[in-house]
TrEMBL record:
Protein's membrane topology: Single-pass membrane protein
Keyword terms, alphabetized: Heme, Iron, Membrane, Metal-binding, Monooxygenase, Oxidoreductase, Transmembrane, Transmembrane helix
Organism, as annotated: Trapa natans (Water chestnut)
The protein, known as: Uncharacterized protein
A molecular function GO annotation: monooxygenase activity
Family: Belongs to the cytochrome P450 family.
GO biological process: brassinosteroid biosynthetic process; brassinosteroid homeostasis; sterol metabolic process
Membrane-spanning intervals of the chain: 7-25
């Protein structure tokens, strides 16, 4: 009898907790978005990680948008997330960034990139300013454009002497080492640690189930993080203890970090500085290199686009006073078809399914109330593949941008964010890709030997890579 009473009491208590929770989140705060939180702790991450071998929107998002609409909730990698795929709602999040929302990633990203340990909003504003100083428009105009061209000429010349090049790894390593040189004067010839190998392994662990157990992908990811952090920390301590006197134009980002630490920026600590120097190169390694690979894949599959690209760059080269003169900023701005091509690759590529934020307070959105501390995913991939916005969205068509009004482009194309809240490296990424293509198509031909199979799980990858043979043109 006592056992029956205990069971009934436990059931009633559980029911009471459920009713109270429903009242707190439903009655007092308003209705939550529709959706499912999946299994305890892991949520719906297992379904999210099911591979999809298509450029189309991943089934995880497509299925839920069809069922729940353009705002729904889920739980992934330990965090409750509200997913947005409506243009107006996404723009609202960007407009209120820093007020109602703050930058935040999934738990896996946060552990790898240590985002939990700092005041994210303050750090984000500071890092944006710092990145713009070293990789923004003025830096691109004054020095980076020509430095990138020199880097690409040397790299592609070297690749042309090889029978086969895994372009994902090769271009990623090139982008990483160039970026790391600008960040903390990294010299791969002098370093015992090859950053390319370390960061390549990190990409495999970012969307893995966050189990820090020996043998798991996530565990290996964290171990490689320790190696890179140790190297960067050693560079930082050595530089801070014995500052180098260099001309202003030769100062790297680390020099400015150390100088700012001595000023009134109290949130800057050694650990944060080292973390920033670890985080920033990842953008160059993964997103830029993957976009470059996709560009070469599309060009190899679409001869008409390749020929129009070649014609544009040959015309630029022939109009110079000297055919070997470096690219000018005016020439870059004149590469209209190249920019259309890059826009289309960015739209189709969707390297990440979305951009992440977190609510700082309770937020009213589309008739729902989003609790403070919940994650927000701006599903840019859903916007880019929306048939109501783009005709035949899964079709590669760079010419769709030819007659596209600037307002429509800004409104619907969000690979780097939107408006003033765009990623600080947005223009750098475009210049990187355009300059690489100029060097490539004016001096080389290439052939895809194997690979190039697209896979989303949910981050975009090219399966076993993409192997290319580069051949110098007879000019």
């Amino acid at each position: 009898m006592m056992e029956i009473t205990w069971v009934v009491g436990a059931c009633l208590s559980t029911l009471l907790v459920i009713l109270l929770t429903s009242w707190i989140f439903g009655g007092r705060q308003g209705a939550l978005p529709p959706g499912s939180l999946g299994l305890p702790l892991i949520g719906e991450i297992l379904e999210l990680m099911i591979p999809s071998y298509s450029l189309d929107l991943i089934p995880f998002l497509k299925k839920r948008i069809q069922r729940f609409g353009k705002i729904f909730k889920t739980r992934v990698a330990g965090r409750v997330i509200v997913v947005l795929s409506d243009t107006t709602l996404c723009r609202y999040v960007f407009q209120q960034d820093g007020k109602l929302f703050e930058p935040r990633s999934l738990d896996t990203f946060s552990k790898v990139f240590a985002q939990e340990a700092t005041n994210v909003s303050d750090v984000h504003r500071y890092v944006r300013s710092l990145v713009l100083k070293h990789f923004g428009m003025e830096a691109l105009k004054q020095k980076l454009l020509n430095q990138l061209e020199v880097e690409f000429r040397a790299a592609i010349r070297s690749w042309s002497q090889q029978e086969s090049v895994d372009i994902k790894y090769a271009s990623g390593t090139m982008a990483l080492e160039f970026g790391a040189k600008k960040l903390f004067s990294y010299d791969p010839k002098q370093s015992s640690l090859k950053l390319g190998e370390v960061y390549f392994s990190l990409t495999k662990g970012l969307m893995a189930i966050p189990l820090n157990i020996p043998g798991t992908t996530h565990y290996k990811c964290l171990q490689n993080r320790k190696k890179a952090m140790s190297m960067i920390r050693e560079i930082f301590k050595k530089r801070r203890a014995s500052p180098e006197k260099r001309p202003q134009e030769e100062l790297d980002l680390l020099d400015h970090l150390i100088a700012d630490m001595e000023s009134d920026k109290s949130f800057l600590t050694e650990e944060l500085a080292v973390q920033l120097l670890f985080n920033l190169p990842f953008v160059s390694f993964d997103s830029v290199s993957t976009t470059l690979c996709l560009t070469l894949k599309f060009l190899a599959e679409h001869p008409r686009a390749l020929q129009e690209l070649i014609d544009e760059h040959e015309a630029i080269r022939k109009n110079r006073e000297g055919s070997e003169s470096p690219i000018t900023w005016e020439e870059y701005k004149s590469m209209s078809f190249t920019i259309h091509l890059i826009n289309e690759v960015l739209r189709l590529g969707n390297i990440s399914p979305g951009l992440f934020r977190r609510t700082k307070t309770v937020v009213d959105m589309n008739g729902y109330k989003i609790p403070a501390g919940w994650g927000i995913m701006i599903a840019t991939s859903a916007l880019h593949m929306d048939p109501e916005i783009y005709e035949d969205p899964t079709t590669f068509n760079p010419w769709r941008w030819k007659d596209c009004k600037s307002e429509a482009m800004v409104k619907n194309l969000m690979p780097f964010g939107w408006g003033m809240k765009q990623c600080a490296g947005a223009e750098y990424s475009r210049v990187f890709l355009a300059t690489f293509l100029h060097v490539l198509v004016t001096g080389y031909r290439w052939k895809v030997l194997k690979g190039g199979q697209v896979c989303r799980s949910p981050m975009l990858s090219l399966g076993q890579g993409m192997h290319i043979k580069f051949m110098q043109k007879d000019i």
